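Data availability (excerpt). The following record was deposited with the supplementary files.
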Amino acid sequence: MAYLRAAAGIGFTPWDCPAVEDSPNGIRSAAADMRVLAVSRGGTELPAHVAHLPVAQARGACAALSLLTRLFTPGPRPRPAAGGGAIGSRSAPP
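Predicted structure:
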């Protein structure tokens, strides 16, 4: 909800505002409406309950820098996989 209010407050749609998150709850919350860069803490893997979300994943802050440019590049929203399943995680956005 905070992400939606922040996007509305600056006059953008949530999809046009990339989110950078390191907590599983924050990743899950932002992934509902935004492009998300999930930065794992200490290079650990994301927990299974968020690893399946359509987010770009980086193993740390340094690795995240190159992905940020891609997240700021406008593009279409990802679509669910055939059969209505989740899109699976990816290491970089399209």
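Summary of structural features: The first helix runs from residue 2 to 9.
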